């Protein structure tokens, strides 16, 4: 379980996160939504340990993240950042196998290769193993990056592991967005805790167990999509008029032109 306790963070004099407090249980998929500049990526970086909070702490399975060694952490926590800066001419398979590095260094076992190919298949990228990563389209690259993040956790999810995703759907078309989210949800179903920053409210509504709505660095609504996704909450989060529709299973939001 991921526990975020009372986090506050400022860039200089600019407070960006204010007493952020929530949990992601084992097997739960929590989506963080909010307007541009609300503090989502900063929250992501603080949870990943890339920025140090002025207040609060982050616990995984009851232990502060700082209490794990880097190699321990690499085996139980995997993060997909917003922007990849990977520019080597590596094959797609070698790129995904980087997710296994903490386990066997540069020598991939048969099991590692099986897990990497499985992860590629889960995101619809089977058959691309021998292609050069940097020569893929933006959406293909993003799916390969997601496969690397999944591969780092293992063949499937397990309790005590954490998958962190910052805009995993950037550059993905609607079909591949759904496929990617289904692959992520399978890890949650197998007891990994998943925290994903999403911009697509309807994708979050369909795939996430819970949604955290962030505004000006504060979580003002947290819970199941059907409770959190109200017209008032979305207006408050995004400052935009919207209409909510339901199909008996999920809620969907349409944002209206001003
Ligand atoms: N390195 C930085 N130094 C100073 N201010 C920053 C820095 N990074 C982000 N900020 C500011 O912190 C606030 C939150 O930024 P953050 O990137 O966390 O927002 P976000 O919710 O992820 O936005 P987006 O949806 O546009 O990606 C913004 O006002 C931003 O300008």
TrEMBL record:
User: Which PROSITE patterns does the entry mention?
Assistant: ABC_TRANSPORTER_1, ABC_TRANSPORTER_2
Q: Identify the residues that the record assigns to the ABC transporter domain, covering every copy.
A: 2-241
- What exactly does this protein do? Part of the ABC transporter complex HmuTUV involved in hemin import. Responsible for energy coupling to the transport system.
Native species of this protein? Answer: Intestinicryptomonas porci
- What sections of the sequence does the record tag as coiled-coil? none
Instruction: Kindly state which keywords UniProt assigns to this record, in alphabetical order.
Output: ATP-binding, Nucleotide-binding, Translocase, Transport
The keyword ATP-binding belongs to this UniProt entry's keyword annotation = yes
Q: Does the keyword Cytoplasm apply?
A: no
Protein name as annotated: ABC transporter ATP-binding protein
- Provide a Gene Ontology MF annotation, just one: ATP binding
């Amino acid at each position: 379980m991921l526990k975020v306790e009372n986090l506050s963070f400022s860039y200089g004099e600019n407070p960006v996160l204010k007493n952020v407090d929530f949990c992601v249980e084992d097997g739960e998929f929590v989506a963080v939504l909010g307007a541009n500049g609300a503090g989502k990526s900063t929250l992501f970086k603080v949870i990943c340990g890339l920025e140090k909070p002025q207040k609060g702490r982050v616990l995984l399975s009851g232990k502060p993240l700082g209490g794990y060694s880097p190699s321990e952490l690499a085996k139980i926590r995997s993060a997909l950042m917003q922007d990849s800066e990977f520019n080597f001419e590596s094959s797609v398979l070698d790129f995904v196998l980087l997710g296994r590095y903490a386990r066997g260094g540069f020598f991939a076992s048969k099991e590692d290769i099986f897990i990497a190919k499985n992860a590629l298949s889960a995101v619809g990228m089977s058959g691309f193993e021998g292609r050069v990563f940097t020569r893929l389209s933006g959406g293909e690259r993003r799916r390969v990056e997601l496969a690397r993040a999944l591969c780092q956790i293992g063949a499937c999810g397990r309790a005590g592991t954490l998958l962190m995703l910052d805009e995993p759907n950037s550059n993905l078309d609607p079909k591949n967005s759904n496929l990617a989210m289904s692959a992520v949800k399978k890890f949650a179903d197998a007891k990994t805790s998943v925290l994903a920053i999403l911009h697509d409210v309807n994708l979050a509504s369909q795939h996430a167990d819970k949604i955290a709505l962030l505004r000006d660095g504060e979580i003002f609504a947290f819970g199941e999509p059907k409770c959190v996704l109200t017209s008032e909450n979305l207006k408050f989060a995004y400052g935009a008029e919207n209409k909510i529709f339901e199909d008996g299973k999920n809620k969907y939001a349409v944002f209206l032109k001003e």
